[in-house]
User: What shape does this take?
Amino acid sequence: MNTIGILGGTFNPIHYGHLRMAQELADELHMDAIRFIPSANPPHKNAVSISAQHRAAMVELAIAHNSHFTLDTRELHRTGTSYTIDTLLSLRAELGESTSLTLFMGSDAFTQFNTWHRWQEIMQHCHIALVQRPHTNKNQASNLLPKILEDFLHAHYTENGEDLQSTPAGYITMRQVTALDISSTAIREAFKLHASTRYLMPDSVIDYIKTHQLYI
Assistant: This one.
């Protein structure tokens, strides 16, 4: 079964935290490819000041030398709010029902998962790989959840990565990755203050930001 990982987000801008997480999950869960999907109009964030085209261009530069990483711009070509369920339905129409799709998600984002548009349908179309905070186990993480999501997590949870490879959708797993304390917010602030962002993100992305005078 073909296995595809999905990493969505504003990528405003993309940095090594995104890239390292994607690489470690791809390795641990034996993914054939990872699709980076920039969000055009994210429902849970304020309006993004940098255009989707610029953010997609930075992703493309950041992943250029990794043959397993690809840029997927489908959300940029849709009007309206960028809902995950619509993206998954579009991917299923393209890839078929037998491909394993795994949505990468931070454990913090999962605490609000029940507020997502048509959230209970999402598991019909993909797996979810939750990224744990360092030194947090499954039970500790579930204690941070509202009861509806705690029950949802336990109903779908697996620690066996092979479950995600052998079925197209329906499982939630939790993984720890190298903790890189890098945030897009801090990077934007650094550019505004003319501070160095070297080693926080690929040089090609830094050069693009400077060329187009973003975040100034």
Remarks:
- DSSP finds ten helices and six strands in the chain.
- The CA atoms of residues 133 and 176 lie 7 Å apart.
